[in-house]
Design brief:
Oligomer: single chain
Distance between the termini: 187 Å
CATH class of the largest domain: Alpha Beta
Strand content: 5-15%
CATH architecture of the largest domain: 2-Layer Sandwich
CATH superfamily of the largest domain: Histidine kinase-like ATPase, C-terminal domain
CATH topology of the largest domain: Heat Shock Protein 90
Radius of gyration: 60 Å
Length: 933
């Protein structure tokens, strides 16, 4: 039993150890059987030894395989083994060595190909087969594919980098490498297209000169899109810049110097642009200077032709030359050759230089040089026969003076006049500014022209002198009958010359009259619409304009009226010179004249802060028989001057009957009125008083004068006063004021006054207080003086009844005048038709039999106003139709010609609105006008 128990325990332990080690894999198990000995003890120990050996071997194998599984190929099986375990140990160790060799080769190939970039590497693992052989082949295949693909990509990239866009990637590829291949090939195609387009644009723009080319590359984005855009911008900018330069160059080549390059540029193109613009500006300035020089040379040469008097020519030269070159002083010295000299003509000595003409220089201020040797630069220029230019002249060299002061010039030029190297004279000019190079070149060329002209005059004078001497000697040898016949012939020739000159004078007068008529028409025509529309705006009937805008319109109307007055002054001066100024006396209530004075000048004095006084003597007649328009013109000129030259104080008008002692100013009449205009202004120097009544003369005529004006007003006023049988007398003291007195007869000379009106002095303003000598001021009240008429006044009362609903025809070719007159007449309630010429006017009358008045312009195309008026009057049904001639031709005889053709009245342009409406009312309601009168 003990044995059975021990065997059973032994069997259980061995079974357990076998199960744990062999089946369950729990290595390290040991059989523990107690109480055994002998064979059973040996068996137990052998079983335990076997289990221990298996444990150590399996665990060593497990460690190595675990290390291999973990990628550690440095471990090997080192436990002692025998038999199959030894074979297993050798197999595992061989496998580890092969794996380590395979890993080393794969790592080497991966490092060379993937890291070091050494393409072409291959894994070489000896003694492998099966899967390891396949793995080695696959790695080598992968390395070969990568090598061929990367090398192909590198070749294409190198070709692109070297500018060769003909290469592409042609190696087989798949996956992402295929995508890379496609991307690179697409990039090469894009670069090739971009290169071709850029090359084409560069060739067209840069080589062939075909501007405007643009690169078109389809399907590009990003940088390539920006590059394409930049190339196109470059081509566009070059096109714009080159075309702008070409346009300016073409314009310059065709003589147009007004163009310049305005396109925006930068860098060297900007410098080129600036240089070309500077070149054009220089060419323009050179051309302008050349044109100025040539035109003035031709003009002055033409002016000198036909003159035979040296003094006249010298004066003409200085009058034209001095202001032309911006000089302020000029002197002309004529050389006096020694006629007794026997030397050649080019060496004739000079006896002296005589001053014969000056500009800005008085005769007594010049010096006459003696014979050679003479002193001074004039004589030096005469000896050297060369121009002398002095810049920075000393202050005491010479003085250029005017009425206000004097100053020294800074530049002097002395020019000898030569003809075939013979000195004929010297011109000296002085200026406050430097003479330009163009001026100096002009001097050098002009003296040759002057030399020819003066030499011609001298030669003609000598020829005429010799001819006269010869004729005188011949005449002494002739018989008295021949002498009488010659004298008769001379008389006939003189008469013929006088007749010819008279004809030329008549022609010249006709041309002058035609010129003035045309000038008057061309100036008055636009003024007509300007004044009418300005008047409409200043009336502001709807109240839409602000006070400032009304003031603007008033200023425009006032300025236009001033311009009209200037035109009238020029025409009046022309009439006076031609002796065609006529006087139309009529009954003139004095209150009407004074109303005009107050209405015209009261606002002006208020604006300037001046007191304006009007006073009438007790014994002044209630009315005059004189020309109302001319009296208004004289008083307007005198009062305008008084207000203009008075900064503070007062302006005064006194109307008095002249005492017998003052009749020395007006003869052949016992009834004289004095209109005295006095002011507290700047006054006039005594030596200037005689000058101010000359045409175009003023007390201050300098360029820096304070007061404007033409200098015609007083001259015209004096002449008109003479036509009225009167005279203007002036008194003045500088700094205290001036007094101008108009003496005019109550009845115009050569006329008989009509029966006087009933004596009623209630309507005369502010009579002169007896024994006081003072003149009360006309206070600015509503009932003291009438206010200026507005258009509203013509829409009420009698004018409103006459004008409302009446139909008027305007015949005028100037739509501006039609526009202005239509608005004026429409404002007062009239219905307006218009026609552009006489023919259309007659057609309009035939279509509109209800027309009650015609406003007829004179100068029109196709059929003028005179012809139209005559045609209307030839038609029986229109013989009584009122016609008013409206014309901008305000020349003598125009009014009479219009009336003779059949016009009822004559109104000059620019039209005075109140005057025109007055005439219209008189023509539309003559009976009411007579009753009112």
């Amino acid at each position: 039993n003990t044995m059975v128990d021990q065997l059973s325990a032994f069997a259980d332990e061995v079974t357990r150890v076998a199960r744990e080690v062999g089946t369950e894999g729990n290595l390290g198990g040991q059989a523990q059987v107690r109480g055994v000995s002998g064979v059973w003890k040996d068996l137990t120990d052998n079983v335990n030894f076997m289990a221990l050996n298996l444990t150590s071997q399996v665990r060593n194998i497990a460690q190595v395989t675990t290390a291999v599984a973990n990628g550690d190929l440095s471990k090997k099986i080192t436990v002692d083994a025998r038999g199959e375990i030894l074979e297993l140990k050798d197999t595992v160790n061989t496998m580890v060595e092969q794996l380590r060799a395979f890993a080393d080769e794969v790592t080497r190939v991966a490092r060379e190909v993937g890291t070091d970039g050494r393409l072409g590497g291959r894994a070489q693992v000896l003694g492998v087969s099966g899967v390891w052989r396949d793995l080695t082949d696959n790695v080598n295949y992968m390395a070969d594919n990568l090598t061929s693909q990367v090398r192909n990509i590198a070749q294409v990239a190198t070709a692109v980098a070297q500018g060769d866009l003909s290469r592409k990637i042609d190696v087989d590829a798949r996956g992402e490498i295929l995508e890379l291949k496609t991307t690179i090939n697409t990039m090469v195609d894009t670069l090739s297209s971009f290169s071709s387009e850029v090359t084409r644009v560069a060739r067209e723009v840069g080589s062939e000169g075909q501007l405007g080319g643009q690169a078109r590359v389809e399907g590009v984005y990003g940088t390539w899109k920006r590059l394409t855009t930049n190339v196109n911008e470059l081509a566009s900018n070059l096109t714009t810049q080159v075309r702008a330069i070409a346009e300016v160059a073409s314009a310059v080549a065709q003589g147009d110097m007004s163009r310049s390059i305005t396109v925006e540029t930068q860098g060297e193109v900007a410098e080129l642009k600036d240089n070309i613009n500077l070149m054009v500006a220089n060419l323009r300035e050179t051309t302008r200077a050349k044109d100025w020089l040539e035109s003035n040379l031709a003009r002055l040469a033409a002016l000198m032709q036909g003159h035979r008097d040296l003094m006249e020519v010298a004066d003409l030269i200085l009058r034209e030359l001095t202001p032309l070159v911006n000089a302020q002083y000029g002197a002309f010295y004529l050389a006096d050759p020694d006629e007794d000299s026997a030397g050649p003509r080019t060496t004739v000595p000079i006896k002296g230089l005589a001053f014969i003409a000056g500009y800005g220089a008085a005769q007594d201020a010049t010096v006459e040089t003696g014979g050679l040797p003479v002193h001074g630069l004039v004589a030096q220029a005469a000896r050297e026969k060369k121009r002398i230019l002095v810049e920075g002249a000393p202050p005491d060299y010479i003085k250029i003076n005017s009425g206000l002061g004097e100053a020294a010039p800074t530049t002097i030029v002395i020019i000898p006049i030569l003809f075939e190297d013979k000195l004929l004279g010297v011109i000296e000019l002085a200026s406050f500014s430097r003479f330009s190079d163009v001026h100096l070149a002009f001097f050098d060329q002009f003296v040759n022209t002057i030399g020819v002209a003066i030499n011609t005059i001298i030669a003609n004078s000598r020829t005429e002198s010799l001819l006269g001497e010869s004729q005188r000697l011949a005449m002494q040898l002739q018989e008295r009958s021949d002498e009488l016949q010659k004298q008769q012939g001379e008389l006939q020739r003189s008469n013929a010359e006088l007749e010819e000159k008279a004809a030329l004078l008549a022609t010249s007068s006709q041309y002058k009259s035609e010129f003035l008529a045309n000038m008057s028409h061309e100036l008055r025509t636009p003024l007509n619409s300007l004044l009418i529309l300005a008047r409409l705006l200043s009336d502001n009937p709807d109240g839409r304009l602000s006070d400032q805008e009304v003031q603007f319109a008033t200023t425009i109307h006032r300025s236009g009226s001033d311009l009209l007055q200037l035109i009238n002054d020029i025409l009046d001066l022309s009439k006076i010179e031609a002796g065609r100024m006529d006087v139309r006396p009529k009954r003139l209530p004095l209150i009407k004249l004074l109303d005009y004075v107050h209405a015209t000048f009261r606002p002006l004095t208020l604006d300037r802060g001046l007191a304006f006084e009007v006073a009438v003597g007790e014994d002044v007649p209630r009315e005059m028989y004189s020309d109302e328009q001319r009296l208004q013109q004289i008083l307007r000129n005198l009062l305008s001057n008084a207000i203009k030259f008075t900064a503070n104080g007062k302006v005064e008008l006194r109307v008095e009957r002249v005492e017998d002692a003052e009749h020395r100013y007006v003869r052949d009449t016992d009834d004289v009125i004095a209109f005295t205009v006095s002011d507290t202004g700047i006054g006039i120097a005594p030596e200037k008083l005689p000058v101010i009544f000359e045409a175009f003369q003023q007390a201050d005529g300098t360029t820096n004068r304070k007061y404007g004006g033409t200098g015609l007003g007083l001259s015209i006023s004096r002449e008109i006063a003479g036509l009225l049988g009167g005279r203007i007398v002036a008194e003045s003291e500088p700094g205290k004021g001036s007094t101008f007195t108009l003496y005019v007869p109550v009845v115009s000379p050569g006329h008989t006054a009509p029966a006087p009106l009933p004596e009623n002095r209630a309507d005369l303003p502010l009579p002169l207080q007896p024994n006081t000598g003072s003149f009360p001021v006309a206070h600015d009240t509503d009932d003291a003086w009438p206010s200026p008429t507005k258009l509203e006044a013509w829409t009420t009362g009698r004018p409103g009844r006459i004008l409302a609903g009446r139909r008027v025809l305007i015949v005028d070719d100037d739509i501006r005048n039609v526009f202005a007159l239509t608005h004026v007449l429409g404002r007062v309630g009239m219905n307006v038709l218009y026609a552009e010429n006489g023919r259309e006017g007659i057609e309009t009358l035939e279509r509109s039999p209800d027309v009650e008045l015609v406003l007829m312009d004179i100068m029109m195309p196709e059929m003028d106003g005179y012809e139209t008026i005559s045609a209307i009057r030839r038609t029986p049904r229109w013989t009584g139709l009122p016609i008013v001639a409206l014309t901008a031709k305000a020349m003598p005889g125009d009014r009479e010609k219009s009336i003779a053709r059949g016009a009822n009245d004559y109104v000059p342009k620019p039209v005075d609105i109140d005057g025109l409406l007055t005439v219209v009312c008189e023509l539309l309601d003559p009976e009411g006008t007579e009753e009112e009168a």
